[in-house]
Amino acid sequence: MSSSSSVVNGIATAVNLLCDLAMLGEAADTLLQAVDHNENPLLETATLINSLALVGFSATEIGGLCAGLKSETLQKIKSGELLPRALNVPLQCGTQLMQVVREEDENHPIELRHLLRVMEKGLVAPLADMSRTAASAEAYYEQHFLDMTPEELKKAERPIYKLVDYGEDAHWKIVGYKPVDPEECKRNLQSLHTQFVAATVVRVAARNSVVERVVCDLGIPTIQRLAAFFGWYAPIGQNPGGGAGGPGGAGIHPAGGAASHDVVEQELNIDLVNFPNIPEPLHGDEVLQLYVCPITQRPIRDPVRDPTNNITLYERSAIVNWLRQNPVSPITKLPLRIEDLLEAPVERNLINQRLQEYQDALHHFFEEHAAAPIGD
Q: pLDDT of 30-42, one tens digit each?
């Protein structure tokens, strides 16, 4: 393998370790949520244990590379890693589904972004991870031939596989052996390297919910999604007045849609700054994402600070509910009472300013649509 390929391979290996660590953190968080909801934490516990094993395998591989272990030994390590990687597929899918069920139980309707998250983090990411691990194991197998001395290479043989018993009983069988061709090893190694890097990219993208963000956040401008959230705006193709949940049930439509100036003025009475929570279309906002509650995993609207570390911010209602059942900090595990929570005026002001910016943008959005020609 070329030096540039080795560098890329090393970076990808390190990135995958970081992904495993992030997955371990998420597994610990979901286990705490299961305990908090008085659920049987069997699935979450299994996921945590399996995630811990995967971190161990990844760390062992990196340690082995640094220590100069033989490729044959590293290939055995990666082959053993395939089992927990395969188990990770149903475990991740199950935990992601449980997250969706919990959000539905909390009176948050299941949305497209939830389903996309299950697909990406529950299926695509672990399947890509399996493909990456298999490619890595095969790459170490090919490399161990290239690490041989010329004398050893002359004696080495590669098995020849053939698909037999076509149909339901089809399987691959060794039908013979052939001498090892170093050039074939290099071609196979390059192909496996490409597969390894591609699988890593897919895994990282899926774990960061790239498709969810593109479809739910970038596909429709934020202001339109925010207006539609309150039933103020219906995209082309929806029935007039078919918005979800806005006062009066009327909708604002693109030019040529049926709307009136009186309806627009009436709908503008809702004030985002005084809204009790952060509307879902704003959850991806880069400013509001700076203040995410570790309990709800959503942007904070009413921030309070944890006095046990003087750093962590919570949604007030979430931490109050937590402390009524568990009088300890969910982060530091130190004793904590509701009355000890600290106000966060600076963060509150920044959140209010951001919401005011969206409020002003909504006013501008409505003015533009109010000025559009009215359809018959």
A: 888 788 777 888 9
Q: Is the dihedral of CA 119, 122, 128, 134 positive or negative?
A: negative
Q: Under CATH, what is the fold of the domain 221-370?
A: Herpes Virus-1 (3.30.40)
Neighbours of 122 (CB within 10 A): 22
What are the sequence ranges of the domains in the chain? 3-147+182-216, 221-370
Please report where in the chains the tokens 């990456």 appear, as a residue. 132
How many angstroms separate the CA atoms of 101 and 94, rounded? Answer: 11
At position 303, the amino acid (one-letter code) is P
Candidate from 9-13, 77-81, 175-179 with smallest mean pLDDT: 9-13
Tokens matching residue 107: 């009176």
Q: pLDDT per residue over 10-24, tens digit each?
A: 888 888 999 999 999
Nearest to 229 by CA among 272, 293, 286: 272
Name the token pair of 146. 């290239």
